[in-house]
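Final paragraph of the annual report: two paired records, presented back to back.
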Amino acid sequence: MPDSPTTGRLTGPAETAVLLAQGYPGSVWLTGQQPSRELRKGRYGPESITHPGKMLPTIARYAINTYTQPGDTVLDPMAGIGTTVVEAMHLDRHGIGVEYEDRWAKLAAVNIALAITNGATGTGQVYTGDSRHLPSLLPPQIRGTVALVVTSPPYGPSTHGHVRTPGARRGKVRKLHHRYGDRDNLAYRDHDTLAEGFTDILAGCRTVLRPGRHAAVTARPYRRHGELVDIPGMVVAAGQTAGLELVEECVALMAGVRNGLLVPRASFFQQKNVRDAIATGDPQWLSQHEDVLIFRRTH
């Protein structure tokens, strides 16, 4: 555990023991060595910052490098601004994304075009539609050809986003870029509806995956009205109900590692919420990682 809400010493063996507790292999991915803004600079359009739930590019990159080969097809059924697709293109894979909201699909198309301009050797395509009906959204020839799915469910309708203060950094702090746009987005649904919808999405992913290939889903718990919501547990249940086999549980660090210490990259509101909780006698810790749940289509 961290020594304070903002810094901590890595405890690799203990973390590994937790991952192995249920009999699944796991590893720690050093994916947080650079801030997200540095990872996206020149690689994604400037408007990409407005999406409330972007995947860290290095997480997608690590998964693609680990579970695929050049020329393979990689799919993200909840593509957002196209992070998975763009990283696949730069690694000489064929990236396919499906996004529900037109706004984010258009930004994904901008980022795909930028990847081509930047010399990416793979191809990229984004489709707009509801991934709960995934097989009907994609060309028939894609069925059974995808080598890897990389995706993440939404963590409710609002994220920590970014902060601004009026005039010379004085006045009340306000949020921006913290909400999805379409009220029909799964992000706005209750937990049970989100779980059902995500199960449908993973069932569609199973249909398009090649037998023996993988789906990597990033997730982390979050607090709603002070109560911890177990999104990783929901993902495990959804994947298994969809007919996928859970084969690995990994940790993707969002924090950097310097001389054995974590260098946190928490938002203003994450830090504030933890400090407020500690002040009221409810000890909490800043989240420094994403769970990465690796499923496999067995047949």
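The closing record of the year follows.
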Amino acid sequence: MKKLMLFMVSLIVAAGLLAAGCGGSTPAQPAAGGEAPEIKAIKDRGVLKVGVKVDVPKFGFKDPQTGKIDGLEIDLARTLAKKILGDENKIDVQAVTAKTRGPLLDNGELDLVIATFTITEERKQSYNFSDPYFSDGVALMVKKNSGIQTLKDLNGKKIGVAQSATSKKALIDEVEKEGLKVQFLEFGTYPEIKTALDSGRVDCFSVDAAILFGYLDDSTVILAERYSPQLYGIASKKANAGLAKLANDTVGEMKSSGELDKLIQKWGLK
């Protein structure tokens, strides 16, 4: 009987050891209170990689004289770098457009995108977004001498929009509602659309109002109408939940402290 009991105990111990050895098939999880792997990777690298606009004055704009990129979204990137790395200057900013910002997140070239990235239900299926740090609406810029005063006046005309931006969809909904016929021409960058407007290739330049104000000059006017609220969020890869939480918490803290409002006022966006 004793031999049988010893044999049974041996089997139980062996089974326990075997189960422990098979644990390698399950991905290791951070210990309670541990650091998310994507945040650790940023710290190990020593720099936060952020996709930003370089053609949107007041949000992300590259000064042609100095080559410096600055704006509200660059300040947000600096705030996050300071929180993660203890130094706001430890950021590596990369120029993105509405078309390239998603793919650059997908392939891991960027940790975050802070680039007038509008939060939509469709986009939330592919990326994490923080709570909004800025709210806007789609607007219309036309030449002062065009005689265009409302969306209805664009019936039969051409509207320039950015590739992969939400402006086109917002306007399509309004155009269909009004029973109008317009032609949309898509461009890679905002300066290209402004050039097309100036040359008469398009009759209207449409994007979020705050972006349009960066291209306003003596020959153009922004119409009063606004369409489809545009809420900008900080985007990260869907898998990077820890980094997404940190970005969202930072936006929340900046709102609560009033720091975000100060930055919006600093850049003349309010």
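The chain has nine helices and 14 strands. This concludes the annual technical report; the extension proposal builds directly on these records.
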